[in-house]
Design goal:
single chain; mainly alpha
């Protein structure tokens, strides 16, 4: 589904590079079909690096997850709580 965003500004080269790194990291994190707590936290940290979450970042993550996993939700690796 193509979305028209008439008020969207053009992305800078830095933003495009950031989205590429984010996509590559999500692809690597999902290579085993699971997401660990550390991988989820790392993805969140990459998104929040500049202190805000953009539509483009969310779109890249969602589309990458859908491309790799299809209709299934990625499994989450659970780790026992350590004190």
């Amino acid at each position: 589904m193509q979305q028209n965003r008439p008020n969207a500004k053009e992305l800078s080269p830095e933003e495009i590079a950031h989205l590429g790194k984010l996509k590559a990291f999500v692809e690597q994190a999902l290579n085993n079909g699971k997401l660990s707590v550390v991988e989820i936290e790392s993805i969140n940290a990459m998104i929040w690096t500049d202190g805000k979450v953009t539509y483009e970042e969310l779109r890249v993550v969602r589309e990458t997850v859908e491309f790799i996993t299809g209709d299934s939700i990625p499994e989450r690796e659970w780790q026992p709580y350590k004190r």
